[in-house]
Structure formats: structure tokens, C-alpha cells
Amino acid sequence: MTDRIRSHGTGAITVGVLVFLYAPLMIVVLFSFHSTGGLSFPFQGFSLRWYEAVLGNTEFRRALANSTIVAFSTSLATLVIGMLASLGIAKMHGRLRSVIGAFFFVPLTLPGLFIGLSLLVWFSRIELPPSLTTVTFAHVIYVFPYFILILLAVLDRLDLTLEETAADLGANAWQVFWKVTFPQVWPIMIAASCLTFALSFDEFIITFFVIGSESTLPMYIWSQLRRTVNPTINVISTLLLATTMLLWVVAFVAVLRSERRRRYSISKGAFTP
Amino acid sequence: MSRISVDGITQNFGSVRALDDVSLDVGDQEFITLLGPSGCGKTTLLRAIAGFIRPQSGSVTMNSIDITKKPAHRRSINMVFQRPTLFPHLNVEGNVAFGLKLESPRLSRQEIKQRVQEALALVRLDGYENRRAHELSGGQMQRVALARALVKRPSVLLLDEPLSALDLKIRLEMEGELRRVHRETKATFIYVTHDQREALALSDRIAVFENGRISQLGTPTEIYHQPANPFVARFVGDSNVIPIEIASRSFMLGNQRLAIDTDLDGAAWLVVRPEKVRILGAGVGIPAEVSDLAFRGTGFAYELRISGVDSVVKAESPAGGEPWSIGSSVNVEIEPADCLALVRT
Amino acid sequence: MVTVQRLERLPLGPLALALPAIIGIALLFVAPFITFVVYSVLTAGVLPFQADAPITLDAYGHFLNSGVNHNLARNSAWTGLFAAVTTVAISLPVAFWLRYAAGSHRNLVLLLITATIFASYLVRIYAWRSMLGQNGVLNSALISVGVIDAPLQFLLFNRFAVTIALIHIFLPYVVLLLYAALGPVSINLLEAAQDLGAGVTRRWTHVLLPLVAAPAATAFIFVFILSASDYVTPQFLGGTKGIMLGVRIQESFLKTGDWPAGAAGALTMLVAFLLLYLIVSFALRLLGLRSVRFVS
After folding, report:
1. Using one digit for the tens of pLDDT, what is the confidence trace for B101-110?
2. Out of 3.30.300.180, 3.40.50.300, 1.10.10.10, 3.40.20.10, which CATH number does the structure's domain B4-230 have?
3. Tell me, what's the ipTM?
4. What is the pTM of this model?
5. Contacts of A208 (CB under 8 A, 6+ apart)
6. Do A114 and C136 count as a contact with CB atoms less than 8 A apart?
7. Are A244 and A201 in contact (CB under 8 A)?
8. Domain ranges of chain B
9. Does B45 touch chain A (CB under 8 A)?
10. Contact (CB<8Å) B43/A1
11. Do A1 and B52 touch (CB under 8 A)?
12. Does the CB of B330 have a partner CB in chain C at under 8 Å?
């Protein structure tokens, strides 16, 4: 029997928080359709002209392409290195696991400013000129702990006996992964990759220090922000919000399917030779 | 004085009627148990008395004062929950003293310390003041919860299946402790359980609940020997409830006509407890076939099939000697004095 | 177990699997950080963006003695403090509602709140600049409705605006963190407290707050550190009154090219953060509020 206890006003505060969180974002979205391009009430009519302006702008398109390339490369690199690392840690025990695990989470302890500065100094020292490549390196370091966090949580919940059975029956390590582990975790891999893509796509604080002459989308937004008020920022912001939130939906759905699948496979038997 | 009564309590949760016009008077210093299967409403009633639920209709009265609208923290009623709910950030002493520190007028530190020690002594946990919840066993945690509730000297103590999460052996020990504590504190205890053995052992009176209503209210012996309806008969004592036709104080069972002392006529239920169904070898009696048997330590529990009776007939016989094997043909004898007849509608 | 050993004997040991990541972090985090520390004790070169021997602590000396830096540090600390305290304070009732009072609405609200984590950082800063400016949304809305006659000046380009934006950024994270922290605190605990005589206030001060003190302190430190070291928000929303230390450090690196100065400043900030963490840990231990062991 669930007896909801009285909220004593916490419900009202929650509503207030939701309004606080969404109002500024909704306003940006609203004004991206504003016909006059002004940013104040009264609202004077809907128009898509700013969308046309933005999508036709070559600088914007290049920044968008760069962000996509960087985010994709980051996700891919993180996926490969991160999967290997997670599988490795999941098999470790005791002190080795604590040490290596802690080592992987260390980038989380440093705010973006310091990571960015360290990389700036380092790249200059090893004479690696700033470019989209250095940005990708920086992003991988930034998103890596998040990927590991998610994957480890899932791998730890897996039933190890399935893998041991496969190995016992003669499968080598690669086959064990493909035939047993992968079918169970691929939805979470997708969700985590969506997350790393979104994180990289939107990254600014570290990127600012390691980027060269090419622009990413956040860098483009930043340069627009420094100029006088410009209605196209509303459009870019809306597009960016839509993309990252869409990615979140994809990730969420992937996780849900993984849960349903897990329950299904437990009842039906998972190992397929 | 601690008389508590509820009158006409009805409570719905969505489309489910948890309590249906329930009324009950609890006597001063009584140990009364609300007994019934899960979902029958007993815990709902307890929580209404505690003050966690405001009943949709009806009232709760204590010593002639209507406390229905009083919030839980202002009633001089305390509760022990099903799972030990000790505050994890406090040690045993802190837990037991928690309620005392909230009393007004404020108690002095010495008085609090003294009462805490008394309460711990009452539940035989002297010396455990500095332990923390995760260092205690399940039974010890519940004893601390008990001390925590009793230290406030409530006139009424509510207990919501406090022993159900404990192992059997600990449960039996704790039952003895509960009876002793009840005698020593002289408070009114309202106890909720689904375990009929526990109810019979602990209570002065039992209220058997079925689907939100009180099915029967009486002393343990009354409930056990004179169940008022088939539900109580089956739930308490696990009796056989067999449909029969009574004609001039007798009925047919198998191929035998048995006498019965009752004024009822026509369709009726025969209620007879398993230990009163005696199994004999060939000879006099009702023929039956053993369909199952189980060893219970104190004896054997049989399931028998008698011609003309749809359900199995349960019988128990004391240990000693060889049990009858499955499939064997036996004869069954039932004394008329052990038969009870209930109206069948 | 025999089968586990067989797995271990496979050619790719767990350490080998983790090796690429270990090398990556060593090359892209550890080495850069060490280099960074080294730079803070070098001397600035004649040309900007360069620095070399001799080793000296001059950069630290200059940084710690500068009055400007003191003001900036004070500003950063205050901003961090306000942002952290307000975020945690607002998140507590929300986490409470989600955990105990939400009923069937819980998942929807959780969804809505977590979705905002994915709203872009720069977009939020821009959104608040649009909201709070003299010609901004809030002012124009209030004027057109008639509540005020002239735009409110105090909303933007000060510490207030920076703090609001930072709260907006960190609120969903802290709500999630505290909601998770309340997971093991069963509703029976609150009922038991109520049964023993605790009204609403006492249930918070004597039961809920002690049990979430440690996670709340973690959230506080998390928001403080990230807020105090933020350099973008003050740039766009801070004006001259809200400027913070991170901006200056960033400028040392990218504009003036005085790397030892910037590195010394950054490392001083890090040391300050470490001190804060130690102080908070110690305070928690003193109050007996360190992590609580829950019983199932």
C-alpha cells in the first residue's frame, strides 16, 4: 500500500524549478521564430527567415560539419578504448581494480578550465599545433570517465557465468566478447555513445584552449555572442537544443529496450552458439 | 486508562475498499490482535489508529476524546513497524532517546538517560547504548525499536507484524519477550499479524479480518474452537470445512451416517480440526484413501480422500509408529463432540 | 574456480585491455598536468606564450600579492558560495518531492529535469542574457504588462546574473544527486520520526538533513568548484562588477601570454579548492555527519 505523504509545499517548489529551468530555453526557441528578430515582447509574428539565414550561412555550415566530425571521432575513439578498458576493469578485483578505476575517473576531478590550460601548455611543448585533432584528443579525455561510468555499471550487473561457460566450451576471448558479452550490452553502448557524442558536440570550455583556426559549433556561437545582438543565435541555439535533446531520447529508448531485452533473455536463455 | 475504539471506519484506495465500516472497542491494557491474510485491511486500520491515514469516514476515539483529526505526532500512541526503522545516523541510545528529546515540557538530560536505560533493560539490551543499527541482528533491531516506542510510556502501543522479518527461532523467543513486556508496562497492545499461531499465543482477544471487515471477534479459544464462519475456520487452525446436508441431527460422510449436536437443518458446513480426524486400520469407520502425507516433527499430516467429498480431508496423527503410506486404504473416525456445524448459504 | 582461471590465462589479460586507456590518460592528462605545474615555476620568456628556466616562485609571489587578484578571488568565492548554497537549498525540497510525494508523476518530472542537462551550456548563458537585459524579455514583459515603467537595471552585468545562470546550469545535476541520495532513506524512517513526536520541521532537522548531509556536501563542493572556476559566464553576464578569477587566468594564457602567471594562478585556485574539500570533510566528521551506513 503506497501512502503518498503530504508534500508540504515541496510540490510547489518543484513546479517553480521546472519553470525556472525551461523558461529561458523556451523563450530562445520562441524568439527563433520571431519575424522582426527582436528579443523583447510584444511578440510580432512568426517567420522562418532566420532559419533560412542560418542554414544558408557557410561559416555556420562549416562549424556544424566540424562539430559533427569531432563528435563522431570522439565517440568512436571513446567507444573502442572505453570498451576495452571497461572489459578490463570488470575482470579485475581488489586493489588493482580500485587503483586503475580511480585512475580512469581522475579527469572528472579537474574542472574544464584546468584541463584546457594543461592541454594548451602540453600541446605547445610537444609542438603539436592546435587543430581539430587536438580538440578531439581533448574531448576524448573529457568524455572518457562518463563512458566508463555507464559501462562499468552495466558490466558489473552481467552474469559472469555466461562468459565462463563460453570460455569453458572453447571460445577464445574475442569470441566470448562477440557472442556473449556484446549481445547483452550493445544497447547501453549505443546510449553511452549518444551521451559522449552530445557531450563532445556541445563542449566549449576545454575546446576554447586547444582549437586552431577551424571552428566548432560552440565556438561559432561564442563568436556570434560577442557581437551585438543577433537573432540568428536563437536559431542556432534552438537547433543545438533539438539535437542534443534528441540524442538523449535515443539513448533513453536504447536503455529501455536493453532492460526489456535483458528480462526476455533471462527467461528464454541467452547463449546462442 | 487507555481505552481506544474505532467506529465506522471506511477507507478506499482507488477502487479497492480496504476497510468497510469497521468498528472495534479495545479494552484497557488489553493485548488484541488484528489477524488476517495480506490485503485484508488490518494494517490500514492500524495506520488509521496511529494517525498516518485520515479515514474517509468514521472516527477514532481514545479515552472518550475524538482523535481522528489529530496528526500522528500528537497522539500518545506509538508504533513498532514491520521492518526495523532505526535511524542509521544515531546509535542505540540516540534512537531510544529520540522521542524523549521531543517531549514538552523538556526533560532533563539525566532523566532522559535514566529512562533510556530502563527501556533498554526492559528489552534486555543493557549495555548496547553505543552500537549502531548495522551492528545489530534483526531481532536486536526490533527490540531497540520496541524500546524506542515504549520509552515514551504510551498508553497504546501498535505493532505492525514486527516479527515477520525474523527467523522462526528468534520469533518464538520474541513472542515470549512481547508478552512479558506487555505485562510489565501495562499498556494496551494492538498487534497485527497474518500468523494465526502467533495470534493465538499472544492475544487476549483476536479480531479476524476478511476483505476489510471483521469476520469474528473473540478470545483465542473462542476463535479456535467456535469459528463463526468458514473463513475463520479455515484460517485459524486450518480446519476441514466440508459441505454436508443435516437431517434430524445427523449427516452422511462417505458411507456412514454420523450424529451431530446442532439445531441447524439442511445445507451446512461441517467444521472439524485435522487433529480430531482419527485414522485407524481396517474395521469400523469411514473408508478413506491416503493421497498425501508430510512429516511435521510432532506428528504426521495426512491428506485423505473420502468418497462423496470433493476436497481433501486433512488429518493429523501423533508421531510414533509407522505412518500410513500414500495409496493405502484406511478408516476414519470422528467424534460427534468434535464436529461443529455452520450455516451454509 | 577453474573456469575463471581459464579466462585469465587467455592471451588478452585485463590489464592489457585497459592499457590503451591508461596510456591515453597518461599522455593526455597526467603529462599535461605535470607540465602545467612545471610552468608555474618557470620565468616568463621575452616573447609571449613562452617560458623557460630559471626556476622561480616569482609567478606565485606576483599572483598572491596582486590586489586585483584579491578582488577577483573574493568575487569568485562569493559567486561560488551563493551558487552552491542556493542550488543545494532549492534541490533538497525537489528531491524530497520526487522521492516521497511524487506518486505517478515522478518519472515524468525526472524526465523533464534530466532533459535540461542536455541543454547546451552556451545556449543557457545566451538565454539568460536575453532574459535579463534592459531590452530583454523579462523587462519588456513586465513593461508591457504594466508592472514597471522603466527597465530594471540591476538584473544584468553583475554577480547576480552570473549566479543565476550558474544555478540554472547545475540545478538538474544536484537534484539528481540528492534524489539518488534519498533512495535508501525509507519512508518508514520519516513515519517513525513522526510517530515519536516529530513534526515537519523536526523531521527535516533531525532525520532527513543528517542523512543527506554527506551527499549534500559533495554537491556543494561540486557546484562551488565549477562555479568559481567558470570563465565564460562572467564574461557574458558579469560586466565589470561580476568578473571572476577564471577570466583573468584564461587571459594570461591566451591574450597576454604570461604562462607562468596564469599557471601559478590556476594552481593556487586548485590548492584553494583542495583546502575547501578538506575543511568540509573535517566539518562533517566533527558534526558526526559523515557517510551513513544504511541497513536494508
Report:
1. 888 788 889 9
2. 3.40.50.300
3. 0.85
4. 0.83
5. A116, A219, A222, C232, C250
6. no
7. yes
8. 4-230, 238-343
9. no
10. yes
11. no
12. no
